[in-house]
Amino acid sequence: MYYLSAYQAGQFGYVHTLATATEWDAWLVRVIPNVLDSDVRSRLRSNLKHILVGMEMKAGLITPHATRGAGNASVLFEPYYTMMIFEFCVGAFSVCEGLGTAFRLRDVGNNGANAPRIAPNHWIASLVAVADPNGNLDLEAKVRGIKSVRDKMHQDRLGARQEIDWHAFSYDDAFLPAKSAILALLQIAPHHVPPATNLTA
To answer: 10 lies in a domain?
Structure first.
């Protein structure tokens, strides 16, 4: 049995390295451009801090399942494991999209109050310019990979939709690149990242 809990530190079977939503505020306040409209900043901060906490929970279950070693009991049923990786990638995409859009709005001198839609190529470029300006982290490719994982679940064109390749939601091909992309974003303001988060592990 695996427990999501804040106690039993050091005992296998308990995920205890999780930050609270409030603990993400300091990092988000530091990273979200303060030239945006105050309501826009507040909503984005609220959205992203809850997404980040949800990603921590998923990472706390995905990682021990994937790294448990031969012969050890599974942490998750395989269908749950696959879908949890997908959900982690959706969360990672939302964080990238939210911050990338905020950076793009700052770049073009728009405070976001009129709710403009920012095209993916534009917000990805602005995100990379802030978090990986030299290209050393391969952030653009990772973000586009996360987007590809998220897009596999679209079911709006059934006649043209191929069967979902569930192997695309693997630990190595989906989870690790998504987590690496988030880690790159956390380095924008590393001293304000919650110490308890497991997204830096």
So the answer is: no
If you average pLDDT over every residue of the chain, what do you get? 87
Percent of all residues in the chain with a pLDDT value above 90, rounded to a whole number: 64
- Are the beta carbons of 44 and 35 closer than 8 angstroms? no
Mean pLDDT of 50-68: 88
- The band of 186, judged by pLDDT with boundaries at 50, 70 and 90, is very high
Cross-strand pairs, 3? 14
Percentages helix, strand, coil for the chain (3-state, rounded to 5) are: 60, 0, 40
H/E segment holding residue 180: helix 176-186
User: Is 201 part of a structural domain of the chain?
Assistant: no
Residue 63's domain comprises 21-192
Closest Cα partner for 17 from 49, 51, 59? 59
In a domain, 75, yes or no: yes
Distance (Å, rounded) from C-alpha 119 to C-alpha 3?
Answer: 40
The answer as to whether 2 is a domain residue is no
Cβ-proximal residues to 105 (8 Å cutoff; 6+ apart), any chain:
33, 36, 111, 112, 116, 118
Domain count, the chain: 1
Claim: this prediction has a pTM higher than 0.85: yes
